[in-house]
Amino acid sequence: MHQQRYAVKKPDFASHSNPSSFSCNQPIPTFMGGSAETVKMRAMAAPANAGGAAPKPAGAAAAPAPQGGGVALRILKFFVALALIPGCVGLSLGIHDYFLTLSSRLNYAAMGPSAMQKYFVYGIGAFTAFAILLWRPVVLYVFGHELVHALATWLCLGKVTNLSASAKGGQVTTSKSNTFIRLAPYCVPLYAIGAVGVYLALNTWWRPLNAYTQWLAFVLGFFYAFHIGFTLWSLRRDQPDLKPDGWLFSLVMIYLGNLAMFVLLMGFICDGQIQAAWPALRDASQMGWKHSTQIYQNLTAMVQQVVNR
Question: Which of 33, 43, 113, 174 has the most CB atoms in a 10 Å sphere around its CB?
Answer without folding.
Answer: 174
